[in-house]
TrEMBL record:
<comment type="similarity">
    <text>Belongs to the UPF0309 family.</text>
</comment>
<dbReference type="InterPro" id="IPR022951">
    <property type="entry name" value="UPF0309"/>
</dbReference>
<dbReference type="Pfam" id="PF13580">
    <property type="entry name" value="SIS_2"/>
</dbReference>
<protein>
    <recommendedName>
        <fullName>UPF0309 protein ACIP2Z_20225</fullName>
    </recommendedName>
</protein>
<dbReference type="InterPro" id="IPR001347">
    <property type="entry name" value="SIS_dom"/>
</dbReference>
<dbReference type="InterPro" id="IPR050099">
    <property type="entry name" value="SIS_GmhA/DiaA_subfam"/>
</dbReference>
<dbReference type="InterPro" id="IPR035472">
    <property type="entry name" value="RpiR-like_SIS"/>
</dbReference>
<dbReference type="InterPro" id="IPR046348">
    <property type="entry name" value="SIS_dom_sf"/>
</dbReference>
<feature type="domain" description="SIS">
    <location>
        <begin position="36"/>
        <end position="220"/>
    </location>
</feature>
């Protein structure tokens, strides 16, 4: 570790990753935003899924001030965060074959919808099967992952494939394998993960692209406002009523 304070080092590392996304993923971000705008314009619904800490970035898109009202969370019980006890059970469930099929069979997903699947490693059975089965249903799939894992780790799916192999579009978060930005001579393990802040920023860049793409087509994007500003609740009630058949988190 350098002489600079670790807080500054971490923030610099996160900024460096964000700059890489801006410069290297611009075309993919634009394509993803266009795909979601197409889905909204064509009457489709939007869903986001992530397991473990990847679920944080998915949850950040749902029922979000400044976000698209049509984004729904595709939740898998036991894997949406560390609230499940014991916490390692969530990690184990990501490796269970067939779980994705059961989730999709009981979900409202249908042909013409779009699904964001967020998985840092993209190597576990759950995100791989989720992508495979969703596409078989006619759902457009955007994978958000670190492509580096596919060349530096072994797939945990029977096919030997990764999330990136089963998507219509891929957004590469650029996170290094292991998700830790800092090291220290006296600390035996690397530390300071950046995947949450980077992945959330990447997805919000996609949402911004979606909103402006819709507006450029003359379609008012179905955005939510903060409930903590005057008029916010009334605005949100109007949007939710207008799109009630495409919003599932209010039922």
């Amino acid at each position: 570790m350098s002489d600079r304070a670790p807080a500054g080092q971490f923030i610099d590392a996160a900024i460096g990753l964000l700059r890489r996304l801006r410069d290297e993923e611009a075309d993919s971000i634009a394509a993803a935003g266009t795909l979601l705008a197409d889905t909204v314009a064509d009457g489709g619904r939007l869903f986001a899924f992530g397991a473990g800490h990847s679920s944080l970035a998915a949850q950040d898109l749902v029922y979000r001030a400044g976000g698209l009202a049509l984004m729904n969370l595709l939740a898998v019980p036991g894997v949406v965060g560390v609230d499940v006890m014991p916490a390692p059970l969530g990690s184990a469930l990501e490796r269970v074959d067939g779980l994705a099929s059961a989730v999709l069979d009981s979900s409202p997903l249908r042909a013409g919808d779009a699904l964001l699947i967020i998985s840092l490693s993209g190597r576990n059975a759950l995100p791989v099967e989720m992508a495979m089965n969703a596409r078989a249903l006619g759902v457009k799939v955007i994978g958000v992952t670190s492509v580096a894992y596919a060349s530096e780790t072994k797939s945990r799916h029977a096919s030997g494939t990764y999330l990136k192999d089963h998507c219509d579009l891929i957004l590469d978060s650029k996170i290094a394998v292991g998700d830790a930005e800092l090291t220290h001579d006296d600390i035996p393990a690397p530390f300071a993960p950046a995947s949450t802040v980077v992945t959330s920023a990447l997805l919000q860049a996609v949402m911004a692209t979606t909103a402006t793409t819709l507006a450029d087509r003359g379609i008012e994007p179905p955005l939510l406002r903060s409930g903590n500003v005057d008029g916010g609740h009334d605005w949100n009630a109007r949007v939710m009523e207008q799109y009630r058949d495409r919003i599932f988190y209010r039922h």
